């Protein structure tokens, strides 16, 4: 209790006289004086720790929930961006003139760029822990190998360090495998969107004559190139 912390000083009670009852600031001033005395006697950290106790498990749970919330928020952004692209693809059939279709293409390109931005942010977030683990594992492994090479160690210590080095090597390999899996998933998402856009353009091409389609042809070629490029990453 802060009463015992502040060198036995008790929290002052408000007087009952009429003047202090009318003065609503009096209790606040007395509390301020009390806590100031407690801080002077015990220090700011002790007073704050006493007033606002924290359970380490609660703190860990808080950050875990925060990370989970961030991950779900990013996933929702991904779903929103993919849904927007799908909605635009479904509008192609309603465009009976090339000028209307070109406007949809323009919106679609912006929606795809939005998807790429959101997906990049999300997958970079997923990758970071494994990148950190890869670097950490490689660092520890190198330090252990240096110890084995340059230090005068006994047989048991050598055996223990070799075992530890192998464990870090395994962790590094697992991290690399996870990085590769996440990277493949990213390019699978972008490739799927590009494939849908390219397929829809092929269908659009069949509905318009060569002269009208000439203005859209460069976009189709660009989509084909991007799709081939993204597919190579899978």
From TrEMBL:
Record's signal peptide: none
Keyword set includes Coiled coil: yes
Any Pfam family matching the protein: WHAMM-JMY_N
Places the protein is found: Cytoplasm; Endomembrane system
Domain JMY/WHAMM N-terminal: 16-63
Any one Gene Ontology BP term: Arp2/3 complex-mediated actin nucleation
Keywords, ordered alphabetically: Actin-binding, Coiled coil, Cytoplasm
Residues covered by the JMY/WHAMM middle domain: 64-233
A cellular component annotation (GO) from this entry: endoplasmic reticulum-Golgi intermediate compartment membrane
GO molecular function: actin binding; Arp2/3 complex binding
Domain of life: Eukaryota
UniProt key word Cytoplasm: yes
Protein name (database record): Uncharacterized protein
């Amino acid at each position: 209790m802060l009463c015992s912390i502040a060198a036995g000083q008790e929290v002052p009670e408000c007087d009952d006289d009429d003047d202090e009852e009318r003065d609503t600031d009096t209790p606040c001033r007395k509390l301020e004086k009390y806590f100031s005395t407690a801080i002077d006697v015990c220090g700011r950290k002790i007073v704050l720790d006493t007033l606002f106790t924290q359970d380490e498990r609660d703190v860990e749970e808080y950050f875990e929930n925060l990370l989970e919330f961030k991950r779900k928020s990013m996933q929702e952004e991904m779903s929103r961006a993919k849904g927007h692209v799908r909605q635009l693809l479904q509008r192609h059939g309603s465009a009976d003139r090339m000028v209307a279709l070109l406007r949809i293409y323009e919106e679609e390109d912006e929606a795809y760029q939005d998807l790429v931005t959101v997906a990049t942010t999300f997958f970079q977030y997923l990758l970071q822990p494994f990148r950190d683990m890869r670097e950490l594992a490689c660092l520890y492994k190198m330090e252990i190998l240096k110890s084995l090479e340059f230090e005068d160690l006994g047989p048991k210590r050598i055996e223990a360090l070799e075992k530890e080095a192998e464990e870090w090597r395994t962790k590094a390999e697992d991290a690399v495998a996870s990085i590769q899996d996440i990277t493949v998933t990213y390019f699978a998402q972008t490739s799927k969107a590009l494939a849908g856009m390219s397929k829809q353009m092929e269908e659009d091409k069949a509905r318009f004559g060569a002269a009208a389609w000439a203005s859209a042809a460069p976009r189709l070629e660009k989509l084909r190139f991007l799709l081939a490029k993204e597919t190579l990453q899978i």
